[in-house]
Amino acid sequence: MDDQTILELIRTGKNDLALNALYRNFPAVRKLVRSRGGTTRDAEDIFQEALIILIRKLKKDFRLSAQLSTYLYGVCRLLWNEQLRKRRLHISFDSSTGIVPVNDSTSDISSKSEFNAAEEADLYAHLQYESRIRLAEQALNELKDRCRELLLVFYHSQLSLKEITAKMGYGSENSTKNQKYKCLEAARTRLKELQHQTQIF
Fold first, then answer.
1. What percentage of the chain reaches a pLDDT higher than 90?
2. Using DSSP, how many helices (H) and how many strands (E) does the chain show?
3. Host H or E run for residue 6
């Protein structure tokens, strides 16, 4: 299946067929990740993340300037480099010497980029955006069920405040607004914690 056919499948929502075709590129990514200290599971995670990025970008009228195989490999390389950078920031505690940096034998991660400078900068920006989205989703998913439901109804439905109050069973619209505020604060607090953990680890 050629690149244009795969792209058309993605743009028309036939992701399963497209993904089956794209998985022919996985062995090269597995080789890359394993050559730099990763496991097959790491490679699978990186590859799946790259597929999600590709699909999201294509649904925003993104124009591919290289072959799909080249693009996917490049995205996986950047993702794995970022993963290695985070791993090098890990610290371990040695009871006799205190906190020491972990020695990462995979620190030499430089390689020729598949993208020009502008494309790579754009992709890095997109990867950072994707990372923020994932953290926000995680923070939301870790809320209590009722809090999560309230925020989802509030922001993803066309219901009025009065209708939300009735649906959620709150005593008044003010109660609904107060509860929404508390849930938002809980989500923001958890998001900040996750962002801090990501920066450290």
1. 33
2. 9, 2
3. helix 3-11
Written as six digits, the tokens of 135 are 């953290």
Report CA 153 to chain centroid distance, whole Å. Answer: 23
* DSSP per position, 139-156: HHHTS-HHHHHHHHHHHH
Q: Residue 32 falls within a domain, yes or no?
A: yes
Is 170 within the bounds of a domain?
yes
The DSSP bridge partners found for residue 98 are 94
pLDDT tens-digit series, residues 36-74: 999 999 999 999 989 888 887 777 766 777 788 888 898
Same domain, yes or no: 147 and 89: no
Is the pLDDT at 152 greater than 70, yes or no?
Answer: yes
CA geometry: angle 35, 48, 157, nearest 5 deg: 155
The string over 150-184, giving b where at least 16 C-beta atoms fall within 10 Å of a residue's C-beta and e elsewhere, is bbebbeeeeeeeeebbeebebeeeeebeebbeebb
Amino acid, res. 47: F
Please, are residues 49 and 70 in contact by the beta-carbon 8 Å criterion?
no
